[in-house]
Amino acid sequence: MSQEGVNGQVLVVCTGNVCRSPYMERRLRQGLDGYGVEVVSAGTNALVGAGIDPGSAALLKDAGVSVCGHEARQLTREMVSSTDLILVAAREHRAEVVQYFPKALAYTFTWGDFADLVAGLDTRRLAESSLGLSWVSRVAAEAAARRGVVLPRAKSQTDILDPYRQDSVAFTRMARRVEVGLSDIVAALTPRSQD
């Protein structure tokens, strides 16, 4: 799935690819900068070619993240089938992703569910595995194996609500939900070398 020499690719998905997924993508990319993990985003009903919504852009700028260069993209089967991990804003997006490529069920998670599944994950064992998989693929497989062991939160606690065309309060609420899981996700997706 990933190119040689790269530690994997994460695809972040929401609806329009202008509010939630660009915010999630840019914050995750910021946390993984320098580790060879590619982070991209798309939308299930993208506003193709649009930039980041001003509400998300303002919050990214406050976090010291560049908002340049984003153009909303429509999710495709090729994107879904060729990535290592898909993180979605809400459970409805997970269902839509899997329609493109049913095998993606194994590596598609809501942001909140994935954060819960990888919280406290012992990545030393993953570093020792020689499965020939990218780092991101190994973490995704480990998270999938923990489904049923780690109980999922209620939909109301894991879904990141869409702030599109709403006030700054809605965007702040969206950002807070993303930030809750960000450190656990970054920690798990930061590649470790064998000790």
Structure description:
The chain is globular and about 45 Å long. The model is unreliable at 1-5 (pLDDT under 50). Helix content is 45%, strand content 11%. Helix 1 links the parallel strand 1 (8-14) and strand 2 (37-43). The chain has 195 residues and is α/β, with parallel strands linked by helices. It starts with 7 loop residues before the first strand and ends in a 6-residue tail after the last helix. It has 9 helices and 4 strands; from the N terminus they run βαβααβαβααααα. A 4-stranded parallel sheet has the order 2-1-3-4, with helices on both faces.
In short:
The chain has 195 residues and is an alpha/beta fold. It contains nine helices and four strands, in the order βαβααβαβααααα.
The residue ranges in which pLDDT falls below 50 over 5 or more consecutive positions are: 1-5
How many helices in DSSP terms? 9
Query: How much helix, percentage-wise, in residues?
Result: 40-55%
Radius of gyration: 16 Å
Shape: globular
Query: How many strand segments?
Result: 4
Lateral strand order in the biggest sheet: 2-1-3-4
Strand content: 5-15%
Report how far the terminal alpha carbons are from each other: 25 Å
The chain-level mean pLDDT equals: 91
